[in-house]
Amino acid sequence: MPGQHRNTNKRIVVILVSLCVIFIAWLLLRFFNLSPKTKNFSGGTILTVATSSQFVYFSNLDGVGVAEQEAETPRVVGIMIDNHPDARPQSGLASARVVYEAPVEGGITRYFAIFNNDQAVQKAGPVRSARPYFLDWLAEYGDALYMHVGGSPEALGLIKERGIFDRDEFFWGSYYWRSRDRYAPYNVYTKSERWQTLWDKTAREKSEWEGWKFSGEKPAISTSTSIASSVAIQYKTDYAVDWRYNSSTGKFARFVNNRPHNDPETGDQLRADTVVVQKTIVTIVDSYGRRHIQTIGSGEAIVFRQGIMIEGTWQKNSLEGRTRFYDAEGEEIGFTPGQTWIQVVPLKARVETK
User: Fold this and answer.
1) Nearest to 343 by CA among 297, 296, 300, 292
2) Which InterPro entries does the entry mention (predicted)?
3) What is the pLDDT of residues 290-316, one digit of tens each?
4) Which CATH number applies to 217-353: 3.30.450.40, 3.40.250.10, 3.40.50.720, 3.50.90.10?
5) What is the mean pLDDT of the chain?
6) CA distances (Å), 113 to each of 138, 254, 325, in order?
């Protein structure tokens, strides 16, 4: 019948129009989901850049997007890693989310690598001994797991006094191993499978802590900022650190003694999204040359991210308070999401920028 054909044609047209509307709506939603967002959380504000998939939640540890709100404040593992020449090259630093480098005896440096407990890390080390100022930075990450091999008398006393969740290799050796291709004491290692077992066996509840402010946007040029392609830090002979900006990656590549600092597990050169130079008071406290480093208080700081140098200050108001970094206008500096390195240096250390 002609009328039936007309009704059929109308239905087909309605269906086709509906499908077109749905398709256009999907395109619009997809387009607007790719627009930049601002997300507030307990650790500050994260400004994300347009990506193929947007996140609602972001890690307090590194500012990177996470799948669920529970993951915003992860359980953290802090590991002491040696930087004696015989301990090089170190394993695991490329995977750490935050790395502190600070002086120890003799003016050499030691690393304090912070990992998300849920990361997969096949080898981290060589693990070395505890020092008190690293414990002050550890306190910023809530009830974190601290892994080390022995420590100075002051550090061991503070671990007990503060009730730190620590696992000293001297007493918990099954969570470490000693490599046969290096000699002691530069041969102690651990990995994520072992520290995850430690967390699984503990009755400690997950604690809350605040992160830094993160920003995916490039810093604007102001009275605090200038373009910087590199920063060089001289701790002492054989401890010359260089960070050189690579505009193609948007990261700073790390060099030690003018050679690329590579991770032996991956073969890749270490690269940081944010590099901080934190200047503070460092004094020698005993005949062994042990150091006291001022961690609570304030001082000068320089932050490097996305090829920009931001001059300002650092401030830590209490043991568990987060060390925060501010520009010349008093605004908190946003770090680029990803890996952050904190270079802690004495007030008179030679720091050169280009």
Assistant:
1) 300
2) DUF3048_C, DUF3048_N, YerB-like_sf
3) 999 999 999 999 999 999 999 999 999
4) 3.50.90.10
5) 89
6) 10, 15, 20
Q: pLDDT tens for residues 260-285? A: 999 999 899 999 999 999 999 999 99
C-alpha 240/C-alpha 233 separation (Å) is 6
CB 135 within 8 A of CB 158: yes
Q: What pLDDT does 23 receive?
A: 53
Taking alpha carbons only, the member of 172, 170, 173, 145 closest to residue 159 is 145
Among 274, 289, 290, which residue's Cα sits nearest to residue 333? 274
Rounded-to-integer distance, Cα 239 and Cα 261, Å: 12
Judged on CB neighbours under 10 Å (0-12, 13-18, 19+), 100 is buried
Q: Which pTM value belongs to this model? A: 0.86
Q: Which residues of 185-216 are buried (b: 16+ CB within 10 A; e: fewer)?
A: bbbbbbbbebbbebeeeeeeeeeebbbbbbbb
* In the block, residue with structure tokens 């529970």: 70
Residue 352 pLDDT? 97
Give the model confidence (pLDDT) of 191-227 as tens digits.
999 999 999 999 898 899 999 999 999 988 788 899 9
Domain 69-201 sits in CATH 3.50.90.10: yes
Q: What is the pLDDT of residue 294?
A: 98
Spans of all domains in the chain:
69-201, 217-353
